[in-house]
């Protein structure tokens, strides 16, 4: 793969998208990865955090969804496995127009008695054409009604981020809305690209914002130029989120 060389960026277009393993909710038996690819392509992002990504599973087929989406978009990628699933793997992924290095899958904690599905934070170092470097992460927090695991998981993400010297962009499905303890903990360490955030689920008549992009940076490195929820209602059960982030040189 030879991703195209993009011009030096004074801003980054960042997208977060829970892709529901490429399954349109209106067609339970169908995998329509092209609908996901087209949704991403229309937004021309520099960086994309994906959640609910299949690799070689029975339900999706014998291929790596992260790799295939990246190939069709001519982007770099990194897949972070959360669990083994249906003969393959399932987790989160990063897509980038720019080179990725120092890729890591951080296992996130949960209380054993809850029997929560294992969750991860996948991160990579991104090097922009002008030599600027940053850390980019994708995560998908616990979905149980009780927030105990989500709070443990966001605390661990904050701990990881607090030891990171690079500017940190974090995106994902937090399964928590603004005003909850989980998002309060996120907001103590990161700045979300929206404050009065438009809802992202369900895709038809959405009522809850649970998908966010956030950043942590030294001395005003980042600022938000725009934040949008994209009204794409076919491809997934979540609406994608896109933010334009300015980078101070």
Automatic annotation (TrEMBL):
- Name the Gene3D superfamilies for this protein: Endonuclease/exonuclease/phosphatase (3.60.10.10)
Q: Does the keyword Hydrolase belong to this entry?
A: yes
Q: Any idea which UniProt keywords this protein has?
A: Endonuclease, Hydrolase, Nuclease
This chain belongs to the protein called: Endonuclease/exonuclease/phosphatase family protein
Domain Endonuclease/exonuclease/phosphatase, chain residue ranges per copy = 15-238
- Name the species this protein comes from: Rufibacter glacialis
What's a Gene Ontology MF term here? endonuclease activity
| InterPro entries assigned | Endo/exonu/phosph_ase_sf (IPR036691), Endo/exonuclease/phosphatase (IPR005135), GPI-anchor_lipid_remodeler (IPR051916)
């Amino acid at each position: 793969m030879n991703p195209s060389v993009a011009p030096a960026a004074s801003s980054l277009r960042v997208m977060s998208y829970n892709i529901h393993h490429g399954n349109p909710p209106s067609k339970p038996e169908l995998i329509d990865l092209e609908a996901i690819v087209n949704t991403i392509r229309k937004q021309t992002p520099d960086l994309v955090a994906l959640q609910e990504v299949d690799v070689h599973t029975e339900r999706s087929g014998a291929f790596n969804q992260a790799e295939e989406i990246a190939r069709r978009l001519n982007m770099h990628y990194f897949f972070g496995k959360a669990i083994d699933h249906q003969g393959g793997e399932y987790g989160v992924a990063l897509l980038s127009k720019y080179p990725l290095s120092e890729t890591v899958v951080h296992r996130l904690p949960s209380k054993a008695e809850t029997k929560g599905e294992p969750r991860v934070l996948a991160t990579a170092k991104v090097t922009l054409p002008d030599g600027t470097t940053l850390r980019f992460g994708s995560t998908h927090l616990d979905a149980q009604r009780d927030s105990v695991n989500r709070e443990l998981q966001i605390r661990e993400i904050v701990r990881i981020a607090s030891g990171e010297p690079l500017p940190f962009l974090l995106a994902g499905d937090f399964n928590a809305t603004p005003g909850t303890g989980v998002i309060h903990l996120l907001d103590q360490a990161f700045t979300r690209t929206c404050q009065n955030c438009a809802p992202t689920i369900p895709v038809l008549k959405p009522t809850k914002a649970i998908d966010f992009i956030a950043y942590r940076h030294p001395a005003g490195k980042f600022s938000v130029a725009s934040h949008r929820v994209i009204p794409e209602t076919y491809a997934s059960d979540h609406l994608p989120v896109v933010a334009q982030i300015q980078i101070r040189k």
